[in-house]
Design brief:
By secondary structure, the protein is an alpha/beta fold. It is built from seven helices and 29 strands. It has a six-stranded mixed sheet with strand order 9-6-8-7-11-10, with no helix packed on it. Strands 23-26-25-27-29 form a five-stranded mixed barrel. A hairpin with a 2-residue loop joins strand 21 and strand 22 (294-299). Helix 1 packs parallel to helix 6. The chain is elongated, with a radius of gyration of 31 Å.
Length: 410
């Protein structure tokens, strides 16, 4: 079905319904941070593999120390030493104590560890100046992880601590949903790579930099390329880039003028177009389809249109492909500091700034003459839904925060 000028919500739901998770892969733990677990994962070993001491001190039988006090210490015979890394310690006879280091195996016969600060060592005699209840200062075998226990759940995001747990459970690899590999193709005779010489009438490809930076923020690998406005060059670049990518993003040439060749080139290549143009502003010219089984998004070339269509439509789809929730940014409630107007025939997005007043957020639109400086200053997006013409000053609205590291709570 080829749909034209569809509503924003319909476009977003189309993207999310068409895209699916990438096939799972097994990767080393050293590269798994931030990935989503593909299947329930279970430990291969107990951790710790034997019961160990949590303190430097002396392994003892708790019953021997029931009467031990500072004024009436109990004498125990020193019976060897256990250090971290040993597979096991020699058994402990009653009335004895074994010197242990933190992480050292606790000998059979001992059910507690007396911290060294409560014991005195004199030759082969240990003077215990405090009792030690059963289990004190001992980490039992399998206390952290038991063999066969689930240590990561499907759809869980792998954090540093979770990866440490997997390592402790005897795993060195994990099945994950891979991060999408994204090809970014900027089209236009006027485009120049940043750092190259520039002539009058040319512009640096800032959209390419912005898009690849956003992808990097979410841990996705990207390859960018600039091609002129020639159908054959665009087709060659698309085929080359998609050979090693999961998704294609194009920037420019999307709206439909005689110089806008990107969509026409993809039509000629036989892609399945899902929709063309959306009732949203900025970003109306966005087009989406499937080429050779891979999603392709044609984004407008105007910087605000380019970025906003990426953030509101493309990025949620990419996150779904990576197994993550299709919600890139947090939302907060904020009081509007001035009245804003949109067009009731489409969904309007406005770049905005946030200010905390007392314990509550306030928001106001960024309205600089420079589009790029407005983008650079933006901390949030105000959305005026289709069918709504005005949001009034002092209205409390929901805004999307573009910088997730911001402190959102009072």
């Amino acid at each position: 079905m080829r749909r034209y000028d569809i509503g924003f919500e319909e476009a977003r739901q189309t993207v999310l319904s068409v895209l699916s998770e990438l096939p799972s892969v097994s990767i080393p733990l050293s590269r798994a941070l931030g990935h989503v677990v593909a299947v329930d994962t279970y430990g291969k070993t107990d951790s710790p593999s034997v019961s160990v001491s949590l303190k430097d001190g002396f392994a003892v039988f708790s019953g021997d120390l029931e009467s031990a006090t500072l004024r009436a210490p109990v004498a125990l015979k020193l019976s060897g030493v256990s250090t971290a890394g040993l597979s096991r310690a020699e058994p402990l006879p009653s009335g004895s104590a074994m010197k242990v280091n933190t992480g050292a195996p606790v000998p059979n016969g001992a059910d507690a560890v007396l911290s060294s600060e409560f014991a005195g060592e004199q030759g082969d005699t240990i003077w215990a100046r405090k009792d030690a209840g059963s289990g004190r200062n001992i980490l039992e075998k399998g206390a952290d992880v038991r063999c066969g226990e689930r240590v990561a759940q499907k759809d869980e995001l792998l954090t540093p601590a979770r990866l440490g747990l997997l390592a402790a459970a005897g795993l060195d690899r994990v099945m994950v949903i891979p991060r999408a590999r994204v090809a970014v193709l900027a089209t236009g005779d006027e485009l120049v790579s940043p750092g190259d010489p520039i002539q009058p009438g040319q512009v640096f490809a800032s959209n390419l930099v912005t898009l690849t930076a956003w992808l990097q923020c979410f841990g996705m690998v990207s390859e960018g390329r600039i091609v002129p406005d020639r159908g054959a060059d665009i087709e060659d670049a698309v085929r080359s880039l998609l050979s090693s990518a999961d998704v294609l993003l194009t920037s420019g040439g999307a709206f439909g003028s005689e110089r806008d060749l990107t969509v026409r080139t993809l039509d000629r290549m036989g892609w399945k177009r899902e929709f063309r143009r959306i009732r949203m502003g900025p970003g109306k010219g966005t087009t989406f389809g499937i080429l050779d089984g891979k999603p392709a998004f044609c984004l407008p070339g105007g910087p605000p249109s380019n970025e906003l269509s990426f953030l509101t439509l493309v990025l949620p789809g990419l996150l779904k492909m990576c197994g993550r929730r299709p919600i890139p940014f947090p939302h907060v409630r904020a009081k509007l500091l001035e009245t804003v107007r949109g067009d009731p025939t489409w969904t309007q997005f406005l770049y905005a700034r946030l200010i905390k007043v007392d314990t509550r957020w306030t928001v106001f639109p960024v309205r600089l003459k420079s589009r790029l400086q407005s983008q650079a200053l933006a901390e949030a997006l105000i959305r005026i839904p289709e069918g709504t013409e005005t949001l009034h000053k002092d209205d409390v609205i929901e805004v999307e925060v573009l910088h997730s590291e911001m402190e959102l709570h009072p």
